[in-house]
Write a structure and sequence with these properties.
- The structure holds two protein chains of two kinds.
- Chain A is an alpha/beta fold.
- Chain A is built from 14 helices and 15 strands.
- Chain A has helices spanning 18-28, 41-47, 72-81, 98-116, 155-169, 196-205, 225-235, 257-268, 272-275, 287-300, 303-312, 328-334, 345-356, 359-370, and strands at residues 7-11, 33-38, 56-60, 84-87, 124-128, 139-141, 174-179, 181-184, 211-213, 219-220, 222-224, 244-248, 255-256, 283-285, 323-325.
- In chain A, strands 3-2-1-4-5-7-12 form a seven-stranded parallel β-sheet, with helices on both faces. A two-stranded parallel sheet of chain A has the order 6-15.
- Chain B is built from ten helices and eleven strands.
- Chain B has helices spanning 22-27, 35-40, 54-68, 86-89, 113-120, 138-153, 215-236, 254-264, 274-279, 286-296; strands at 7-14, 18-21, 45-48, 78-82, 127-131, 157-164, 182-189, 196-204, 246-248, 305-312, 316-323.
- Chain B is globular and about 50 Å long.
- The chains are: A alpha/beta, B alpha/beta.
């Protein structure tokens, strides 16, 4: 049976990237049909009222279950209909124990590969990974298979790297997209989802970060959600991507850590009340010294500092592991690189500062720190 | 300021007769942290005044200094007197002993220890200035003022004295540092050749004046500000980082020094840290007591380049670049 319309099976369609990708897919090609995997179909429908039901149908299933919990009729229907898989679902929490992170990022991927292997119409399996499968590697990072070597900073990175290996080993027409860290929605600087980067900025703003690992010239790669969604949507059904790995990263437009901190502290210093505090930029140091500092905080710091150090510990080592992501493949296919970080970083800071000044945000921050 | 020519011509110090081990302090309930943790930070013993007053130690340190360097008391132009806890350093008569609070009434409130020291040691020409609010960086403040007096007023000899006692009911630990009672005296000379002060730096951050409320912020700001001050003093001395032969520390946790040395990229072997265990943190006197001991034990040789750094709650970061 041959499907007349391209049909994309999407996992993670309700996530940070998934929703934006779905809208773009539907907008780009009126013929596209989507099937989204949803744990709770009612909840999906309630949250997707802006999505035309005639073109997007949810199926109840779960990456945590064998064969995704899909019944045989559904599996048969998908097998005869799906032309593309877009695997966006992931457990993105950095602090999970490895075995927990593997549940979705590795075993969930394996379950999806297993069922998709029997889909006769399948033309492409796009696995959305992360640029940070590179883990502790430094220097130029090619758009290629992750090389084993110095390991990873957190279980998220490792489990995503392991998931990629499964995809590469499959017989499917796979391609892998590796977005960088998403810090804001678009170049307006709006932040609709807070991540550890924003928590770190808040801590810096409060003068509670003594030091960070890294050096002045080490690049920090971040992107906008808008860029990631646009790139993924455009590449999801792109022909000729088979067995390719692409970086959705700032690449050459990434800024050095020192410059990012300078821009950040200069911006905050525009507020006289903040400037009066004379809060120094955190000292940049090597990982060994930072580890000593973390140990010292653990032994002697008050509850607040210990909480902060712990909450950042699964992220900050990356600051010292400077990477220059090659984006030539993605840039060529997309026709343009990711927006320059300089074009939105200050706007993002403006947005964050305004939001921190809201009483509700202050309360939330205090609770986070206290926890 | 950094062009002012001055040198540390002499250093003397005095400890009380009694000392206590970490174990003894723990048994007496004088520590708030696990002694094993404090031991891992390098602390072993501290000096505890039982019979002595701050003034007793101050006069002992200052008279020893004058004797050791054969200084005619009449040749001293200025006495700078300070101490970390102001309430004891400035107690009438400077003795800070039991019942001194009562003497804050009436004219006795003006019985200052600096003037008493000038009289007791016969420094009849010397004028006296009291220094306050520098906490553990008091002697750095004194050196700064002394250099300025040498440059601006032509002072030839300035005697800087600090007498620091930890309050009797405060235990023997200050934020994971074990504290000693001590006094230290420095002789600053405008024309000295040994221990020439090439540069001095001080950063004060008033935002941190509420030490208890801002405790976490102060801990966080300690290292980056320390690094700035150290880098600036090295630059103003005309040195490169690798020119520093010895870091003469204040005797706070050795762990914090490991971190700070990592930040300023100086090897641990350049830290003269032997006194952290032997004496603990003597508040304002640390760096200069250490400098004296490092000279006496032959570690510091003439011509070597020394970096002294201290932090005083309140909040001051201070550093000196000294050529031995």
């Amino acid at each position: 049976m041959t499907s007349r319309r391209p049909t994309i099976f999407i996992t993670g369609a309700s996530g940070q990237i998934g929703r934006g990708v779905l809208h773009r897919l539907l907008g780009a090609d009126p013929a596209v049909q989507c099937v989204v995997l949803a744990r709770d179909v009612s909840a999906w429908r309630a949250g997707a009222q802006d999505v035309p039901a005639s073109r997007v149908s949810p199926v109840r299933g779960d990456l945590l279950l064998p064969r995704l919990g899909l019944d045989q009729p559904t599996l048969r229907q998908l097998a005869g209909r799906v032309t593309h898989v877009l695997h966006l679902a992931a457990d993105t929490e950095f602090s999970r124990p490895l075995e927990v992170a593997r549940e979705i990022n590795v075993r969930g991927t394996a379950r999806l590969l297993e069922i998709a292997t029997g889909w006769a119409e399948l033309r492409g399996f796009v696995h959305v990974s992360t640029a940070f499968v590179a883990g502790r590697r430094t220097g130029p990072i090619p758009e290629a298979a992750a090389m084993h070597g110095p390991g990873w900073v957190n279980a998220y990175e490792q489990s995503k790297a392991e998931g990629e290996e499964l995809v590469r080993a499959s017989s499917l027409p796979w391609s892998i997209l590796r977005p960088s860290t998403i810090v804001c929605d678009d170049i307006s600087g709006r932040v609709s989802r807070r991540i550890v980067v924003h928590r770190a900025l808040r801590v810096l703003h409060h003068g509670l970060a003594s030091m960070l690992p890294g050096d002045e010239s080490g690049t920090i790669d971040v992107i906008t959600r808008d860029y990631a969604c646009e790139a993924i949507a455009r590449l999801a059904m792109h022909r000729g991507l088979e067995n390719r790995t692409l970086h959705l990263c700032a690449g050459a437009a990434a800024l050095p850590l020192g410059e990012l901190l300078d821009i950040t502290f200069d911006f905050w210093a525009e507020t006289p009340e903040w400037k009066r505090r004379a809060i120094d930029r955190p000292a940049l140091t090597d990982l060994a010294t930072y580890a000593l500092f973390e140990q010292s905080i653990e032994e002697t710091g008050d509850r607040r500092l210990r909480g902060i150090a712990a909450s950042l510990s699964h992220f900050v080592p990356q600051l010292a592991l400077s990477k220059q992501f090659d984006t030539s493949g993605a840039d060529t296919l997309l026709g343009a690189p990711a927006p320059s970080v300089r074009s939105y970083w200050v706007r993002m800071l403006e947005y964050l500062l305004a939001s921190w000044e809201q009483p509700a945000a202050r309360l939330r921050y205090r609770k986070e720190v206290a926890a | 300021m950094n062009a002012a020519r001055a040198s540390i011509a002499g250093i003397s110090y005095a400890f009380p007769e009694t000392s206590r081990s970490l174990h003894q302090l723990a048994q007496a309930g004088e520590l708030s942290s696990d002694p094993a943790l404090l031991s891992s930070f390098g602390f072993e013993r501290v000096h505890v005044a039982i019979a002595e007053s701050p003034y007793d130690l101050a006069v002992r340190a200052a008279s020893r200094l004058l004797a050791e360097h054969d200084v005619d008391p009449d040749s001293v132009d200025v006495v700078l007197y300070g101490g970390a806890p102001a309430a004891t350093a400035y107690a009438p008569g400077g003795d800070g002993g039991p019942g001194h609070e009562r003497r804050w009434h009436g004219m006795t409130r003006f019985e200052f220890p600096g003037a008493r020291l000038q009289y007791d040691l016969g420094m009849t020409r010397a004028t006296v200035i009291g220094l306050d609010q520098f906490a553990c960086s008091t002697l750095f403040g004194a050196v700064r003022v002394a250099r300025a007096l040498c440059a601006a007023e032509g002072a030839r000899r300035v005697l800087c004295v600090s007498a620091d006692f930890f309050p009797a009911d405060a235990g023997r630990e200050a934020i994971f540092n074990c504290t000693s009672d001590a006094a230290c005296a420095l002789l600053i000379e405008g024309a000295g050749e040994r221990n020439r002060i090439l540069a001095g730096e001080q950063a004060t951050k008033g935002y941190y004046w509420q030490c208890e409320e801002k405790r976490a912020e102060i801990v966080a700001s300690y290292f980056p500000t320390a690094r700035h001050v150290i880098e600036r003093v090295i630059e103003h001395a005309g040195w490169r980082r690798e020119d520093v032969d010895w870091v003469i520390p204040h005797n706070v946790s050795a762990r914090s020094w490991d971190i700070l040395l990592g930040l300023v990229r100086l090897p641990r072997a350049r830290l003269w840290g032997a006194n952290i265990g032997r004496h603990g943190h003597t508040l304002a006197g640390d760096n200069f007591i250490n400098l004296r001991d490092a000279i006496d034990d032959g570690s510091v040789l003439p011509g070597q380049r020394l970096l002294l750094f201290s932090f005083g709650y309140g909040a001051h970061w201070s550093a000196l670049a000294v050529e031995a």
